[in-house]
Amino acid sequence: MxxxxxxxQGGMAWVSTAExxxxxxEAGGLGIIGSxxxxxxxxxxxxxxxxxxxxKPFGVNVxxxxxxVEGMMEVIVDERVPVVTTGAGSPGKYVPTxxxxxxxxxxxxxxxxxxxxxxRSGVDAVIAEGYESGGHVGELTTMALVPQxxxxxxxxxxxxxxxxxxxxxxxxxxxxxxxxxxxxxxICAAECTVHxxxxxxxxxxxxxDTVVTGRSTGHPVRVIKNxxxxxxxxxxxQRVPAEVLEKLGAGRLRAAMVDGDVENGxxxxxxxxxxxxxxxxxxxxxxEVIAEARQVIxxxxxxxxx
Length: 306
What we know:
The protein is α/β, with parallel strands linked by helices. The chain has helices at 18-26, 40-53, 69-79, 95-100, 112-120, 142-152, 166-174, 184-187, 196-204, 227-237, 242-249, 252-257, 282-305, and strands at residues 7-9, 31-34, 58-63, 83-87, 104-109, 126-129, 135-136, 157-160, 179-182, 210-213, 221-224. It folds into two domains: 7-193 and 276-305, TIM Barrel (Alpha-Beta Barrel); 206-268, no CATH class. The strands form two sheets. An eight-stranded parallel β-sheet has the order 1-9-8-6-5-4-3-2. Helix 1 runs parallel beside helix 2, helix 2 packs parallel to helix 3 (69-79) and helix 7 crosses helix 13 (282-305).
């Protein structure tokens, strides 16, 4: 499987539908359908829709804590999806079956230890995702995490978290990454079917407008600040039990991304929201990123040779 550019679009639940994934793949990147907590029936429809829209490689992101994970994997095998990215667990038990039909398995990792363990399970590459990213986050920044993962694994490393332009791509290539995964930038792709108010929230956001909530639950999440994030903060200060917080968060991502509730929904977005300035077609986003990265690398090579 080959793609033209080393750019993967993050598989964001309720955001990354077939339309966005196909547009990114058509533009030379790797589009990813975000399955989240959806059903296998929905996923099959999305995969087939994506195949109608593009003949280029694309993938599916599977959250391994999903109650329908077995059904999701069956769909992916049946449909021979070229790539699977995973989060919230180890895909090890599924690796042999997926690879037997030609599917590449690429888990998201937030630590060196997890990267080493998952590589031993036979995965094809890893996505080293830093604390700057939107959604569920780890503890290490991208700048610290990526080179340490690169140094200890023998598979390609894709960098994610806090990357929105060609400067970010050039930076992580210098750290040893094989490419980037971008999520927040693609929320504002013209082909993204997320609610328009979410795109507006990202466009309005500045450097300090995201916050990490839910630390006490063991599943911290980065979101754009709103009434819900403030409520989370207040309840965590009061040491409300984790199960109460989990209940508070249930259904809030869909409320934001589908229904457009920007105050009481979970508006997951990364720290680079402040770098996203306009809504553009996915092709334009990718071409801008690649062109800028080339300019940066050329400038640096000239400086190094001066």
